[in-house]
Amino acid sequence: MKRFSSLLIVAASLATVAIATAATRPHYGGTLHVGVQEAPQSFDPAASDGPGFRSLSQLVFETLVKLDERGHPRPLLATSWQVEPGNQRWRFQLRGGVIFNDGIPVDPASVAASLRTANPGWKVFALGDLVMIETSSPVPDLAAELALPRNSISRRSEGKLIGTGPFIVAQWDAAKQHLTLQANDQYWAGRPFIDSIEADFGKNDRDELMLMDLGKSDLVEIAPEDIRRAQTGNRVVKASQPAELLALLFTRDAQSDDEVRMRNALALSIDSAALNNVVFQSAGNPSGALLPNWLSGYAFVFPGGGAGAAALRAKAPQHLATWTLNFNTADSVARIVADRILLNAKDAGIVLQVSNSETADIHLVQLALPSPDAETALSELALEFQLPAPTFSTSSVGSLYAAESALLQNHRVVPIVHLRSAVAFRPNVHGLKLLPDGTWQLDNVWLSSENP
Fold first, then answer.
1. 20 to 30 Å CA-CA from 361: which of 64, 71, 81, 299?
2. Taking the model in full, what pTM does it have?
3. Where are the alpha helices (H) located in 102-249, listed in sequence order?
4. Spatial separation of the C-alpha atoms in residues 124 and 135, rounded to whole Å
């Protein structure tokens, strides 16, 4: 698990190597055709957290810092950074020679303006050739937080967001859910190998796999329950670590000790192992933790569903035995999951009733891991679930465990299973890398000729 505590990271030498390498990058050409399951309303880097959308948006919108496979901060638009004692004041040295995709130079003032928009609680300003960030409280992992999509550096021009990445948005059709990206010839790290990317959103992976078999699609996002089936045929499948949390979210805090017992009984009643094995075809890890075990190292300490639900239920008064449950009724898998949860709860003497209302007592949610940095991921999950922001006394596993335990003691979230995400692609797609958190790295993808 990553633990970031360095006061200074300097990577100017890496920038020199990157620029030298950029000048020698080959141009293979071609168009990559991609199918993504999500259906976003805009192509804004903060519009969605799913791995497919996130991976495409990172080709257009870059951050000051990126995270490597182990969650360690690495230079991107910033070449180095320094934090003062107290972890409340940070200075970032920007990479020189970077321009926005419309030709406007990236300078400290434009970077500061972008970060202020995304983080109104921060003080962000240009200081010579540096960007200074001041926070109201210590943020030891601010470098990792800056790698989040919402902290992408962009400028708005004629109602459109302009990024700095290796691809430029040539067309975005929200009605047809279609995106066209063109290679950026002026990209600071060198032109991409391919010419363009055509992406269709809101697509069923089974339909997209058929298109792939017909040679009309190159790369498809695969739902956890379809990973096994996708491995058949003339295609390559890569799966991430379990990086999507399936959970129940209560819309309010528990009002009494009796209700706490009821919530614990509901959590124990859910047969998460059966959900994983049957519904999701063993594509995940049942868990009672917010963070997956590969990231925290201790998720096994939080048990999932099991015996004892009926005993807890018997200790609570009868009038607390009914809750309403909301889920995405258009999602057939979510419906199956909800049906199984309803049956498990009924066996424990708990009545759940399906509701289409946003004010239902409980919501069935599925959320992609926000970051491969453990502290940042936990903080973002708390923000998404409207829980108190976690505090970390030190950069240690013990501190992380204490913070997660405190969030779970709130009894607002019932984790069920961590699911893998996956992609399937044709054998002529090369250079694709799938990170542990499910993010696709597409910046070095190239296409070869089909085998006869």
1. 299
2. 0.89
3. 108-118, 142-145, 205-213, 227-230
4. 9
